[in-house]
Amino acid sequence: MNKKLVACGVALSALLIAGCGGGPEYVDSSNSKAYASMGLDYHDIEKAASDSVQSLLSSAQVREISQGGKKRVVMISGVINDTMQTIDTDQLSRKITRDMRNSGKFVLTLAQGAKTEKGIDMARNARDNDEFDQRTTIEKGNLKSAELSLSGKIVQKNTKVGSKQRTDYFFLLTLTNLKDGTVVWDDEVNIIKLGSNSSVTW
After folding, report:
1. Tens digits of pLDDT across the chain (202 residues)
2. What is the DSSP-derived secondary structure letter of residue 70?
3. Which residues are the signal sequence here (predicted)?
4. Does 14 map to a domain?
5. How many CB atoms lie within 10 A of CB 181?
6. Total structural domains within the chain
7. Is residue 17, in this structure, part of any structural domain at all?
8. Would you put residue 78 in left (φ > 0), alpha (ψ -120 to 50) or beta?
9. At how many degrees (to 10) do helices 89-102 and 42-57 cross?
10. Residue environment code for 90-119, b if the CB has 16+ CB neighbours within 10 A, otherwise e
11. Sheet with 148-161: strands ordered across
12. Separation of first and last alpha carbons in the chain
């Protein structure tokens, strides 16, 4: 009898734990706004990138330099994270440059910039190395130098509003002509969130 009671107790406990704790679940990115937080999330990065690219491609100066069918070479010089959160700024910059490439007017170089492709140097180090068939190595003079540089900064500002906290995020982005140093395009995307004091991101 005691064994049966113990077995029933164990089974009941397992059901209660499973029912209360639950497990991880997938969230559809199209519906994930219901789980919004005061921090920067997927939707915020998508919005900042999308708004910035629309502004960039509609800019008169950008249209001017991309005339003639020549694709301009862009490098990412870096996006500064001046917020109180850990953010992979590469997600934002690569989303922007991806959309720029998809427009057919730009190409991205990873031979220059804040984050370069290590494989480029590794491939060129094979030159004059007797272990490699020199007919298969990459000769000098093939790398394309960047003509434009994409840079930016993400800023966070927290403000107390009554019993709540307001968090403003500023996405500041700039496209610079490397030949003469002039600014071809710059834009600012703002994202504002309001929440309780306990939910604010410091």
Report:
1. 555 544 444 444 544 444 455 677 766 666 655 666 788 888 899 999 999 999 999 999 999 988 888 899 999 999 999 999 998 899 999 999 999 999 999 999 999 999 899 999 999 999 989 999 999 999 999 999 999 999 999 999 999 888 888 999 999 999 999 999 999 999 999 999 988 776 555 5
2. P
3. 1-18
4. no
5. 8
6. 1
7. no
8. left
9. 40
10. eebbebbbebbeeeebbebbeebbeeeeee
11. 106-108, 72-82, 148-161, 164-177, 183-196
12. 57
Instruction: Output phi, psi for 172, to 5 deg.
Output: -105, 120
For residues 48 and 191, the answer to whether their CB atoms sit within 8 Å is yes
The rounded distance, in Å, linking the Cα atoms of 116 and 140 is 18
Domain that holds residue 76: 40-107+144-196
Q: Tell me phi and psi for residue 19, to 5 degrees.
A: -70, -35
Q: Are 193 and 165 in contact (CB under 8 A)?
A: no
Q: List the beta bridge partners of residue 150.
A: 76, 175
Residue whose tokens read 């994202």? 191
Assess contact for 50 and 58: CB atoms under 8 A.
no
Yes or no: say if 87 and 154 are a contact pair by the CB < 8 Å rule: yes
Residues in the chain: 202
Which amino acid appears at position 154 of this protein? Answer: I
What is the chain's alpha carbon radius of gyration, rounded to the nearest angstrom?
25
Is 11 among the domain residues?
A: no
> What would the two tokens of residue 144 be?
């394309």
**Paired sense of beta strands 148-161 and 72-82, if any:** parallel
> What is this structure's pTM?
0.79
Domain assignment of residue 83, yes or no: yes
Query: Residue 52 is part of a domain; what is its CATH number?
Result: 3.40.50
